[in-house]
Design brief:
By secondary structure, the protein is α/β, with parallel strands linked by helices. The protein has helices at about 10-20, 35-40, 50-60, 70-75, 100-110, 130-140, 165-170, 180-190, 205-240, 240-250, 270-285, 290-315, 340-350, 365, 380-385, 405-410, 425-430, and strands at about 1-5, 25-30, 65, 80, 120, 150-155, 175-180, 200-205, 320-325, 355-360, 375, 390-395, 415-420, 435. The strands form three sheets. The chain has a six-stranded parallel sheet, sandwiched between helices. A six-stranded parallel sheet has the order 11-10-9-12-13-14. Strands 7-8 form a two-stranded parallel ribbon. It binds uridine-5'-diphosphate-xylopyranose (UDX).
Length: about 450
C-alpha cells in the first residue's frame, strides 16, 4: 500500500512515521520547502520522543520520504491523508478550514477520471459535516468527477497526545473510521491491520459520527479536567485533599482515574481549539452545549486565577524575584500553544521585580513570543532558582519531580514553592521547612 500524507505537523509527521513503521510506503507532503529540506536532511521540526529515530529508520528503509509535490506520487497513492492544521478562526471561534480546502482543490485537480478511485481521509480535526462538504466542494470544482467512481472522503480522527504520540499511534485505545462505502472501509481495514495483533478495537461508523467522536472525546476530557479543577477549589475552602478526592472517585469504574489531575487549566493545540469549535457546532445546529461553554469559560478564568493564588501566597510582589519552572502546556513537548504560562507570566512580569524562567524544551520557541518579553532566561533549574524569593512550578517535567530539596532551600532567599501541578507531598515539604502551596490540598 502507498500512502500520501499532506501536512507535516505533529499529526502528519507522526502518522507518516508510524504507517511507514507498519511497512507501508509513505510520502509526507508539505508546501513548506524549508521544512521538507530539513526533513530530508534528518532534521525533525518538533520535539516528540522517539520520532526522530523512527523517521530516520524508515527513511533508511526507503519506506518514508518527504516531498513538496503532491503530484509526484499521487497516481500510485492508495490513500491520501489530510493532516493540515485547523486552527481557531479568531473572527468566529470556528475551526478554520482554509488549509483543508486548499488541499481538496489540489487533490481535485490531480484526480485522473480513468484511474481507480482515490480515498481521501481527513485526519485533521474537522467540524461535523466537513467530509461531505469536501466531497461537494471537489465535485463542484471539477464537474466531471463522480463520487465512488473517482474519489471518496473518509474520516479517521487522531487521538495522539503530544509527548506520547508514537505510543498512542502504535498502541491506541481504539481507531475510529467514518466511511460511506465498502471501498473506504476495505482500505482503512488494510491500513490498520497491523493493530489487529494487539486486538485494538477498530470502530467503523458513518462519517459524521466519526467526526463528532473526535470532538466529543476532547470535549469530555476537557470537562473532566475542568471538573477536577473546580473540585480542587472547593477542597481548598473546606480543608479536603483533591488528590484523595480524585482517587476516591476515580476508583469508580464508571468514572475512571485518568484526567483527574488538577492544575493551572488545560492548554495545548487541541483542547482549547476543539472545545471552542464544538461550542460553535452546537450553536450552529441549534443544540447549544452549556457544559462545553462553561468548560471554556472556567478554564480561561482559571489561568488568570493562578496569578491571584501566587499573590495570595506571597503577599506584595513588587520587590520579589520569582523562578518559574516549566512553561510548556505539558511536559515532553516544546509546544507553547495556549499554555497557562502565556497568561500567568505576562501578569507576573508586570507586578514583580524579576521573573526568571527555565524549561527543558520550550524556551527557544518562547523566546520569540511577546508574552515573555522581560523575563530572564536561565539554562538550568538550580541556576534559575538561585537568589529568588519563590519557585512557581507551572509544568510537571520529570526533572522537577526529584529536585535536591536541601540544595533548593539553600539557593532560595526564602523556602517557598508554589506548585501548580501537585508533584510534591505537602507533609514532607513542611517537614523540610518549606512554605509549600499546591492545588486543592487544604489551604489556598
Ligand atoms: C489531547 C488529547 O489527549 C488527544 O487525544 C487529542 O486528540 C489531542 O489533544 P494533548 O493536547 O497532546 O492531547 O495533551 P493532553 O495530555 O491531553 O493534555 C492537555 C492539557 O490538559 C494539558 O495542558 C495538560 O496539562 C492538561 N491536563 C491533562 C490536566 O490539567 N489534567 C489532567 O488530568 C490531564
Amino acid at each position: 500500500m502507498n500512502i500520501s500524507i499532506i501536512g507535516t505537523g505533529y499529526v502528519g509527521l507522526v502518522s507518516g512515521a508510524c504507517f511507514s513503521e507498519f511497512g507501508f510506503n509513505v510520502t509526507c507532503i508539505d508546501k513548506d520547502k524549508n521544512k521538507i529540506n530539513n526533513l530530508n536532511n534528518g532534521l525533525i521540526p518538533i520535539y516528540e520522543p522517539s520520532l526522530e529515530d523512527l523517521v530516520k529508520k524508515n527513511v533508511k528503509a526507503k519506506r518514508l520520504s518527504f516531498s513538496t509535490n503532491l503530484a509526484e506520487d499521487f497516481e500510485n497513492s492508495d490513500a491520501i491523508f489530510i493532516a493540515v492544521g485547523t486552527p481557531t478562526n479568531i473572527k468566529n471561534n470556528k475551526a478554520d478550514l482554509k488549509y483543508i480546502y486548499e488541499v481538496a482543490k489540489e487533490i481535485a485537480e490531480l484526480i485522473n477520471i480513468d484511474a481507480d478511485p482515490k480515498l481521501i481521509v481527513t485526519k485533521s480535526t474537522v467540524p461535523v459535516g466537513t467530509g461531505k462538504n469536501i466531497e461537494s466542494y471537489m465535485l463542484n470544482y471539477r464537474k466531471e468527477l463522480k463520487i465512488n467512481l473517482n474519489f471518496e472522503v473518509a474520516s479517521n480522527p487522531e487521538f495522539l497526545r503530544e509527548g506520547s504520540a508514537i505510543e498512542d499511534f502504535m498502541r491506541p485505545d481504539r481507531v475510529i473510521c467514518g466511511v460511506e462505502s465498502n471501498f473506504a472501509k476495505s482500505i482503512l481495514e488494510k491500513l490498520y491491520r497491523p493493530l489487529n495483533l494487539r486486538e485494538t478495537p477498530i470502530l467503523f461508523s458513518k462519517r459524521e459520527t466519526a467526526e463528532l467522536i473526535k470532538y466529543a472525546a476532547n470535549g469530555f476530557l476537557a470537562t473532566k479536567i475542568t471538573f477536577i479543577n473546580e473540585m480542587a477549589d472547593i477542597c481548598e475552602r473546606v480543608g479536603a485533599d483533591i488528590q484523595e478526592v480524585a482517587k476516591g472517585i476515580g476508583l469508580d469504574g464508571r468514572i475512571g482515574s485518568k484526567f483527574l489531575h488538577p492544575g493551572p487549566g488545560f492548554g495545548g493545540s487541541c483542547f482549547p481549539k476543539d472545545t471552542r469549535a464544538l461550542s460553535e457546532i452546537g450553536k450552529e445546529v441549534g443544540a447549544k452545549s452549556a457544559i462545553i461553554d462553561s468548560v471554556i469559560k472556567v478554564n480561561e478564568a482559571r489561568k488568570v486565577n493562578m496569578v491571584k493564588k501566587i499573590k495570595d501566597a506571597l503577599g506584595p510582589l513588587k520587590n520579589k524575584s520569582l523562578s518559574i519552572l516549566g512553561i510548556t502546556f505539558k511536559p515532553n513537548t516544546d509546544d507553547m500553544r495556549e499554555s497557562p504560562s502565556l497568561v500567568i507570566i505576562p501578569e507576573l512580569i508586570k507586578i514583580t521585580k524579576e521573573v526568571k524562567v527555565y524549561d527543558p524544551a520550550g524556551m527557544s520557541i518562547a523566546k520569540e513570543m511577546k508574552e515573555f518579553e522581560g523575563v530572564t532566561w536561565m539554562n538550568d533549574t538550580y541556576e534559575c532558582i538561585n537568589n529568588t524569593d519563590a519557585i512557581v512550578l507551572i509544568t510537571e517535567w520529570n526533572e522537577f519531580r526529584a529536585l535536591d530539596l536541601y540544595k533548593v532551600k539553600t539557593l532560595l532567599n526564602k523556602p517557598v514553592i508554589i506548585d501548580l501541578r501537585n508533584i510534591y507531598k505537602p507533609d514532607s515539604m513542611s517537614e523540610l521547612g518549606f512554605q509549600y502551596v499546591s492545588i486543592g490540598r487544604g489551604s489556598i
